[in-house]
Specification:
There is one protein chain. The protein has 205 residues and is of the alpha/beta class. It has seven helices and seven strands; from the N terminus they run αββββααβββαααα. It has helices spanning 3-8, 63-84, 88-102, 143-155, 164-170, 176-192, 197-204; strands spanning 14-17, 32-37, 45-49, 52-58, 112-116, 123-126, 131-135. The protein has a four-stranded mixed sheet, sandwiched between helices. The protein has a three-stranded mixed sheet with strand order 5-7-6. Helix 4 packs across helix 6 (176-192). The protein starts with a helix and ends with a helix. The chain binds zinc ion. The site of zinc ion has 3 residues, from loops.
């Protein structure tokens, strides 16, 4: 997505949540944002913005058309992403590889690894039930950035805090600079391309 097309979409006449009663299989609450744009005459577009999918439709589009079109656009985005996204079992395999290579003393493995819509964090690990969640903002991220987050969360299986021992193990990951540059850059871009005020209010709900 180019900056221009992003800005083009940021002058909505109105912003609305997808109707709560609309049944859209596989769509998490709050993940889809529909923008009605007065500047849009006919075409409809959809793109990923952080953890959300933004669908921009003409201001005059009818409710019925919206209900028909939005799921179609969301499905299209998901299909594109699926083609470049690691499956959850592939994430678990990758964690296994990273631990074998950089932290062989950690033999514990996650019970479950899954993608989650998380906008505040890159990943999480609950040591009690050994579940690892990875932010879907990392779908399509460069391998080193994803590896860095996977390795970080995997170390938490053994060490729950960010103590000296934790950092000593994390420090073995050889591409930390490249990975953190990407993650920091992503967050900076998210801030720079801040959403319009009315959309921010909506997302806080
Ligand atoms: Zn941590």
């Amino acid at each position: 997505m180019s900056l221009d097309s992003f800005l083009d979409d940021l002058e909505p006449d109105s912003v609305e949540d997808l109707d709560r009663d609309a049944t859209l299989p596989g769509i998490n609450e709050g993940e889809i944002v529909v923008i009605r744009s007065a500047r849009r005459k006919k075409n409809i577009s959809a793109y990923r913005a952080g953890g959300r999918i933004v669908v921009s439709i003409p201001a005059r589009m009818s409710r019925a058309d919206e209900r028909a079109m939005v799921p179609e656009m969301v499905a299209k985005i998901r299909a594109q992403e699926a083609a470049i996204t690691m499956s959850e079992s592939a994430l678990a395999d990758r964690i296994d590889q990273l631990l074998r290579k950089f932290a062989p003393e950690i033999t514990i493995r996650p019970s479950d690894v899954s993608w989650r819509a998380m906008r505040e964090r890159w990943g999480s690990c609950t040591s009690v039930d050994r579940r690892i969640r990875i932010s879907d903002r990392l779908k399509g991220a460069p391998a080193h950035a994803l590896d860095y987050v996977l390795f970080h969360e995997a170390i938490h299986l053994e060490i729950s805090d960010h103590s000296f021992g934790f950092k000593a193990i994390l420090g073995r990951f050889p591409y930390t600079d490249v990975a953190t540059a990407y993650l920091d850059g992503y967050e900076a871009a998210e801030t720079a391309l801040a959403l319009p005020e009315e959309l921010k209010k909506l997302l806080k709900k």
